[in-house]
Amino acid sequence: MATVGLLGTFDTKGIEYAFLRNRIERAGCAVLMIDAGVMSDPEFRVDFTRADVAAAAGADVESLIAGGDRGAAVATQAEGAAAIVDSLYRQGRIDGLLGMGGSGGSSLVSRAMRQLPLGVPKLLISTMVSGDTSAYADTSDLTMMYSVVDIAGINEVSTQILDNAAGAIAGMARAHEVRRPDQRSRPLIGATMYGTTTPCVSASRRWLESHGYDVLVFHATGPGGRAMEALMQDGHIVAALDITTTEITDEVAGGSTSAGPDRLEMAGSLGLPQVVSVGAVEQITFAPSSAMPEEFVDRLCYQHNPSVTLVRANAKEMARVGRAMSEKLNRSRGPVSVFLPLRGISEYAVEGGVFHDPQADEALFEALRTGLDSRIELVEMDVSINDP
């Protein structure tokens, strides 16, 4: 029988969790109850008490109560819950995880969900779904369901939401239970893509697939780059086809879709093979356009779509990007090849394109030529990036 873990703060939401357990069991799954509350025990049996959760984080629940710091207590219970959930999954005791909460509860539950590997069902019922959910999901494949009303009692609306959630996690858990542990037979390669580099990535993907590889394509908008590198760290992706490195530009120049300061470092630290190019690095991305800082307003801009405005990186910024890429790639422990398409690094940067600026592009190329170690293969091609 598939087993669902129910994780949350049973001291404040015990009635709702008891309702969920009943519905999940009626849907044909077993349930493990994990109480990450702090203040009091629920009036029903649990499999892991609040004291067990605190102990898993190296803490004492009574000390958390005495400390009076709610934020610190939530953070401690989140770490303990993550440790317990990870152990349960490794022991084969859960096939999915369900939790619910407001901002604090969602933070706690999602911390444990992010601990679970890709493909393990994770469902979070949250009051926060209508806003920015990046803090909860990050690069995880967790599913979020909007609670519509606050999670405070069983009523006409919450009954429908919780019923749907119970049915959803039960179905996902049963599917996970019968799924073979590893259905992958072809090596996975991670590739990065933007709308302005799609033809290049699509042609590369078709070639690789015809030669025995599977290709996971990631949209290079911040979360995409982080997700790709997280899958490298977890052992899923065995090589990188990092064609679209525009996230480096946003980190260097202050755009809104940076993947963080460590982008372009994971593959190298793991010794994975990398083929890297400079796709769309002339683009500083702002989404939405209203969020663009004042210093960029008078620059060469282009509205890529109603939600995204692009600013053309100048020669100084392009040189900084080239130096940043060189420093990161020079630390790589595995083989690296860097490809420079000299006639345009994106659809917009080719001759006649809105961002055509050969002088700025040359600043990027020269920074890479002078900055990359001699052991790194540098391939310069007198074509645009999307030339077949």
- Label the overall shape: elongated
Count the E strands: 14
Q: Uncertain segments of ≥5 residues (pLDDT<50)?
A: none
Strand content: 15-25%
What is the helix fraction of residues, given as a range?
40-55%
Note the total helix count: 13
Query: Terminal Cα separation, in Å?
Result: 51 Å
Biggest sheet: strands side by side, in what order? 7-6-8-9-13-14
Query: How many strands, which pairing sense, and closed or not: the largest β-sheet?
Result: 6 strands, parallel
> What radius of gyration results from the CA coordinates?
24 Å
Q: How does the helix and strand content classify structurally? A: alpha/beta
Secondary-structure element order, N to C: EHEHHHEHEHEHEHEHEHHEEEEHEHE
How much is the average pLDDT?
A: 93
Keywords:
single chain, six-stranded parallel β-sheet, five-stranded parallel β-sheet, 14 strands, 19% strand, elongated
